[in-house]
Design goal:
Radius of gyration: 28 Å
Number of strands: 13
Oligomer: single chain
C-alpha cells in the first residue's frame, strides 16, 4: 500500500501455484443412473485441468436431466497425491414412479362462448397419469396419460430427455390419440392422432 496524491495505490504480487488436475470422477451415492451418463454429463476425465467453470457446467447438465432432486459436483483430495483432485458427484435421484389422478363431474347445461351456443352433457370425467423417472438409467423420463369423459377421450405418452444423441438439445416426443365431440351432433366427432 502506497499513499498517492489521489488516495492510495495498492499493489499485489501473485505467484501462480501448480495447476490442479483431475485424478478420477466418482459418485458418492449409488443409484441406478448409468456411470457413462454421469461421465458424459461431467465432461472431465483423468489428467484434465480442474476448473470451477467446468464443475458449474457439469452441475448444470446433470440438473437439466430432471431425474435428480439435488446435484452437487465438487473437488476432493486424492489420497497420497498433491495437485490432483477427484471430482465427486453427489446425486439424489427423484422417485422412480409418480402418479396423478383427477375426477370431475360435469352437470348438463348450455352456455354461450364468443357468441356461439354450446351444450354439454352431464357426466363423470376421469384422468390419470403415470411418470417413470429414469427407469433404464439413461436419465430420461416417460409419461403415460389418459382422460375419459362424456365429451372427450385422450390417450397419450411422452418421452423426455435433456440430450439428443449426446448433444444438449432438450428432446420431447409426444404420441397421442384425442377424440373430442364437435358441437351438438352426436355422430360428428373430431379425432386427432399425432406424434410431435
Amino acid at each position: 500500500v502506497e499513499p498517492t496524491p489521489d488516495g492510495v495505490a495498492v499493489r499485489l504480487r501473485a505467484e501462480p501455484g501448480p495447476r490442479v488436475r483431475v485424478a478420477d470422477v466418482r459418485t458418492s451415492r449409488e443409484g441406478h443412473t448409468r456411470a457413462g451418463v454421469i461421465q458424459r454429463a461431467v465432461g472431465m476425465s483423468e489428467g484434465d485441468l480442474a476448473r470451477a467453470s467446468d464443475l458449474d457446467e457439469a452441475r448444470e447438465r446433470l440438473t437439466e436431466t430432471g431425474v435428480f432432486r439435488s446435484v452437487d459436483v465438487r473437488l476432493a483430495s486424492s489420497p497420497g497425491q498433491e495437485n490432483v483432485r477427484d471430482v465427486v458427484v453427489d446425486l439424489s435421484e427423484r422417485s422412480d414412479i409418480n402418479m396423478e389422478y383427477s375426477l370431475r363431474y360435469t352437470t348438463a347445461g348450455s352456455s354461450q362462448v364468443g357468441g356461439t351456443p354450446s351444450d354439454s352433457d352431464a357426466g363423470l370425467q376421469v384422468g390419470a397419469a403415470t411418470e417413470f423417472v429414469n427407469p433404464f438409467g439413461w436419465a430420461a423420463r416417460y409419461r403415460l396419460y389418459g382422460l375419459y369423459g362424456a365429451e372427450r377421450r385422450l390417450l397419450g405418452g411422452r418421452y423426455e430427455s435433456a440430450t439428443f444423441f449426446g448433444r444438449r438439445w432438450e428432446t420431447q416426443v409426444f404420441v397421442f390419440d384425442d377424440e373430442d365431440r364437435v358441437e351438438d351432433i352426436e355422430s360428428l366427432a373430431e379425432r386427432v392422432r399425432g406424434i410431435t
